[in-house]
Amino acid sequence: MKKFFKKFKELKPVKWLVFQFNSIWNHFHWKKVIKEANELHQKTGKRYYVIPTVNKCIVVNNDWLKLYNKSQKKNKQPTLTHKQLTEMAYYDTGRGNLRRIV
């Protein structure tokens, strides 16, 4: 890890500053997205996933997956399964208030 930062410290000061800014911004963005997912989970009790997009992360649930698959079928594109969504997710909330009925 020290070699990694040493390599970046050898860069010009402007590039080093941009690298530091992006690291800090990504940290705060990550905290914000996780907080949003947990708040939605507390309100609705559903399971939420944090998935990557082109330049940021978004919070989705199974309703989003249904709408996404519906639009993909219209355009004759491949769809996502629930297993692929869970594998792609960076973070997911708990399962909610599920109880096993005996």
Written overview of the protein:
The protein has a 3-stranded antiparallel β-sheet with strand order 2-1-3, with helices on both faces. The longest helix has 32 residues, at 13-44. The termini are far apart. 59% of the residues lie in helices and 10% in strands. It is mostly helical and 102 residues long. Strand 1 (49-52) and strand 2 form a beta hairpin.
Task: Give the helices and strands, then pairings.
Blueprint: H1 2-9, H2 13-44, E1 49-52, E2 57-60, H3 62-74, H4 82-88, E3 91-92
Antiparallel strand pairs: 1-2, 1-3
Largest sheet: 3 strands, antiparallel
- Please report the distance between the alpha carbons of the first and last residues: 51 Å
User: What best-fitting shape do the alpha-carbon axes yield?
Assistant: elongated
Average pLDDT metric: 82
Strand content: 5-15%
Q: Strand sequence of the main sheet, in spatial order?
A: 2-1-3
Output the radius of gyration: 19 Å
Number of strands: 3
Poorly predicted parts: none
Provide a count of the helices.
4
How much helix, percentage-wise, in residues? 55-70%
Determine the structural class based on helices, strands and strand pairing. mainly alpha
Order of helices and strands: HHEEHHE
